[in-house]
Specification:
Blueprint (H helix, E strand, L loop, with lengths): L7 H39 L13 E9 L2 E9 L9 E7 L6 H5 L1 H4 L1 H8 L2 E5 L2 E2 L7 E2 L7 H5 L4 H15 L2 E11 L1 H12 L6 E5 L16 E7 L28 H11 L7 E6 L2 E6 L8 E6 L25 H11 L4
Parallel strand pairs: 3-4, 3-7, 7-8, 8-9, 9-12
Antiparallel strand pairs: 1-2, 2-4, 5-6, 10-11, 11-12
């Protein structure tokens, strides 16, 4: 049997062909990677993870960043299915608690605000505070006397939150007369500060488990409506004032919180309301009373729950190890009904 031989030239051509194929495949892979990166950059622009003020035309969840006082800051935005650019929509800013972040506040399982947005048709925006470790986690707000890194570095959170509203207004058609703020704990305290320093933008606030801990004179640009939610057994921000004895590992990160009655008294005076409160809701486990007759059509309402600790009334769940939220009332439903009852400004 005749033995087959391999010609050197044929072998060389085969090697060259293989090398050429390998180079072609590598080049193709490189081109694909470059195209993929370009597509990712384009997608980043479309979903809002940059500073572009590209208008939003459809419902959904978006993430944006902006520069504020030399820092890159972030916020999440939810646009409900009912949004129609032909009809200006109300805007609700929801501020997370100390040690939280925008994702935690935006989680429907935690606070139900996405469901409320879809039900009532408001735009929901969830800004992020200053993270303790440089990112967005373990974040706090500079609400005056509280809390943490944001307070200690005197971060201009009022300026940032003003910028967030302006950024949202550049992307969506917002009803300027119906811009509101709510927040949990340190976020509720930040809403109190917004009422003092940004009442030209916000028409009402709904702090939850967060009293007024602003510094200096609070002189709102106009009367601003307030509905406050607080559990009588809150073990963090005590109803009668002070910080819970076992609630904070480092008490230097917080303050001796203003009591809820003092907070309400301050808003009654600022809005020139009737000193006498009248009951407006009385159900098992919860009670609401209101100071009416305020300047500019504002009102001041306090809703208390008998139980719930440091939580959001009506929430399905709380942080691990914490008392379950009171189900006697829904903060989301009551605050929105309150906002809707206010006269147009």
């Amino acid at each position: 049997m005749k033995k087959k031989t391999t010609h050197p030239l044929g072998l060389g051509l085969l090697v060259l062909a293989l090398l050429s194929l390998q180079h072609s495949t590598h080049a193709q892979t490189l081109r694909e990677r470059l195209q993929q990166r370009q597509q990712q950059r384009a997608a980043k622009t479309e979903d809002g993870s940059n500073n572009s003020n590209k208008p939003i035309t459809g419902p959904g969840d978006y993430r944006f960043s902006l520069q504020s006082a030399g820092r890159e800051r972030h916020y999440l935005l939810h646009v409900p299915r009912s949004y129609d650019a032909a009809h200006p929509a109300p805007l609700l800013m929801a501020l997370h608690g100390g040690g939280g972040n925008m994702e935690f506040q935006a989680s429907d399982a935690n606070y139900g605000l996405i469901t409320a947005s879809e039900k009532h048709g408001f735009i929901a925006v969830f800004p992020n505070g200053i993270g303790a470790l440089g990112g967005d986690k373990l974040a706090t707000w500079n609400a005056g006397n509280c809390c943490g890194k944001a307070r200690d570095e005197n971060v201009d959170d009022v300026g940032f939150l003003r910028a967030v509203v302006a950024d949202v207004q550049a992307r969506l058609v917002i009803d300027k007369a119906r811009i509101y703020a709510t927040g949990m704990s340190n976020g509720g305290m930040m809403a109190q500060r917004l009422a003092c320093e940004a009442a030209d933008i916000f028409s009402a606030i709904a702090p939850v488990a967060g009293s007024d801990n602003t510094r200096g004179d609070c002189k709102p640009a106009r009367p601003i409506a307030v509905i406050e939610f607080h559990a009588l057994d809150d073990d963090h921000v005590l109803f009668k004032g002070g910080a819970g004895a076992d609630a904070f590992p480092n008490r230097k990160q917080v303050t001796e919180f203003t009591s809820v009655p003092e907070t309400i008294s301050r808003w009654v005076q600022r809005n020139q309301c009737s000193a006498t409160a009248k009951p407006v809701l009385d159900v098992p486990g919860a009670h609401c009373e209101e100071h009416a007759g305020c300047s500019g059509g504002a009102s001041v309402r306090l809703c208390t729950t008998d139980t719930g600790g440091h939580s959001w009334p009506g929430a399905d769940r709380t942080r691990q190890g914490k008392a379950p939220a009171s189900q006697a009332i829904s903060a989301n439903e009551l605050m929105w009904a309150f906002f809707e009852s206010l006269p147009a400004k």
